[in-house]
Amino acid sequence: MIKVISSLVAFFSISALFAQSPSAEIPKLVVGITIDQLRGDYLEMFRHTFGNRGFNRLLNNGLVYSNVYYDFPNLDKASTITTIYTGATPSYHGIIAEKKFLVNSNQEVSSHHDDNYLGNFTTEKLSPLPIRVSTLADELKIASGGQSDIFAFAPDPSQAFASGGHAASGAYWIEEENGKWATTTFYKNRQPLVDQHNRSPESLTFTAGGITWRPAINIEQYNAFPYTRNRYNFQHYLGSEKGGNYYLFKQSPYVNKEVNDMAIRMLESGALGKRVNPDLLAVTFYAGSFPNALDKNYSIEIQDTYYRLDQELERLLDALEAEVGLKNCLIFVASTGYFNEQEVIPEGMVTSGGDFYPDRSQALLNMYLMALYGREQWIKKYYNKQLFFDRKLLEDNKIDLAEFQQKAAEFLVQSAGIQNVITSQQMLHGAYDQNVQFHRNGFYKGISGDLFLELQPGWRVIDPQSKVQERGHNNAIIAPVIFFGNNIKPQKINRTINATEIAPSVSYRLRIRAPNAAQGDILQELF
User: What domains can you pick out in the chain, each with its CATH number?
Assistant: First the structure.
């Protein structure tokens, strides 16, 4: 009898759950706003310079989660945004970093490299196919029978591919060599609006040479940092004397205006949010540091970047309100994490930690392996805190891979600055361990290396092959996630959500299937 009653209770509970429907009508337009390296603490510190219709409108009238967490190591702009739009970690979606190392050809290439497709307004051969699972945009396209329009505009190709997915009507990025809006022949549709802009006098090719970045407002208002040493009227020339290379431009707030201009043009063309099936517009903005800032730690430039970004958000929200209506839009704003901190230590200051030289560690390890297994070059490459072994050489010498990796790890972990070394065999076949699982989430078979190095906090990687010298940090930087529009109730939720929960939650509001590898739950406040 008790079993029967329990079964009935369970049945009616499940029936009631499925009888519930989302608290709002299906949005006509989903707007995904991802902001590269947005920091929640900076948002609070700089709010006194913001207007009322950008960040403040989102923070005051949106559903605001205090922090987002990425459950894998070595975050970068490619791995994190792909996690947002797939609801999965790199172990499923396959994008472990912006670039990857091809062992067989000894090459570093884009993680989206694909020889089967040519570029439009770019010489790069890229496609979204290296994303091994479906995305939010893909599922919307499937649900609508191909009728939904999906457009993505971003500074970089990895961001455009992740947000636009495999079935985008258009996914565009700013080509670093010529300043054009580039795409790939993987996408069959050509958008006249973008092509016309590329050939017009308004294209960056013709305008970037005249751009000089100066403070947008009186620098006395940029007073959030008591540690700013120099309160200076900076001036940065963002063009190129040779007429190419937009590297600095893409790390300035002007890249946000360029992205926003294209998104708003697409809105004003009347193509989005006006039909039965929902459409999706994805934009990616930049809120990271500027490499040529005078103060590296606490700069006037970063405050100006946020001030200008606030203005761009205001412009985009106003355009959405005018063209589609905010109640018809489901807008989500998410940070891709904060990972590019290049702090400067005052001269003469002695700190804990030190400098880790990968080439020296690689040479010492190879000498040790030579003593054990013979005089060969056993190591192919150190790349992005990973070591790649010559698998063919191991196979030819009939050496057990798991044993070889373990001996190498046991030797390397004794090196100064190395906290832990995890082997690929441990990740694939080892016993469960929380730290191993964390690294396993960022591992993809056939792309990742043999050994994964975890450095101790405070140690700096000195890699001659890289321009960036980062110092290890374990401390968290908060970054909010905001949902806005579509009759979402304003709330402040003081909890950390997982980045994998964003895509399933947006899918729920759209009443479509979540991406096929999505791991996160639906956020309860969006029911």
Answer: 29-341+479-526 (3.40.720.10), 355-461 (3.30.1360.150)
